[in-house]
Write a structure and sequence with these properties.
With about 180 residues, the protein is an alpha+beta fold. Helix content is about 15%, strand content about 50%. Strand 3 and strand 4 form a beta hairpin. It is elongated and about 60 Å long. The two termini are about 30 Å apart.
Length: about 180
């Protein structure tokens, strides 16, 4: 998992250094590749910008249990600046349980999520940018109940507990 995170982070940095053309116009559509809840796990995200400050998006990815999807909106505070803070809200995949050797526990959970992030524009092509976000998932009671059942099962060894926040990284290319 650490290797995947390092490779993705290197791709984000590489994406800002390369893929450059001289232009100053922003794109109304972009495609992002990344990992995190707002990418459906490890996946892609399509964003449409009806105005410079609003981005509507949908995402589809692999979340270690199957397909994860999300749809939502972001408010972009400074779309003309090299670093643009964002606030977002979306609905979709926000937790997954995967138990090796006890697949009957495996399940994907959906619910609302809220995010705060930063977009880092490529210097030579502002249509391309990388992003990082902190996400607050509002996980369901069903997820809490199922996770508690895992904790109470003496045959199950829990290797990692969920964090109350999630992080996402992505590289976006303007169309």
């Amino acid at each position: 998992m650490k290797r995947i995170a390092l490779i993705t982070f290197a791709c984000i940095i590489f994406g800002n250094i390369s893929f450059s053309q001289e232009t100053s116009d922003e794109s109304n559509v972009n495609i992002g590749l990344g990992f995190g809840l707002d990418y459906g796990g490890f996946g892609g995200r399509l964003s449409l910008l009806p105005t410079q400050n609003i981005a509507l998006f949908g995402a589809l990815g692999y979340n270690l249990n199957g397909a994860g999807f999300n749809a939502g909106a972001q408010y972009r505070f400074s779309p003309d600046k090299p670093i643009c803070p964002t606030l977002g809200a979306f609905y979709g995949y926000n937790a997954v349980i995967v138990v090796q050797g006890a697949e009957h526990y495996n399940k994907t959970y959906y619910g609302p999520n809220f995010s705060f992030g930063l977009e880092f524009k490529a210097k030579r092509n502002p249509k391309n940018f990388s992003s990082i976000e902190l996400i607050l998932p509002l996980r369901s009671d069903e997820y809490s109940k199922d996770f508690k059942a895992l904790e109470d099962d003496p045959l199950i060894e829990i290797k990692s507990k969920p964090l109350p926040i999630a992080i996402s990284f992505g590289i976006h290319f303007g169309l």
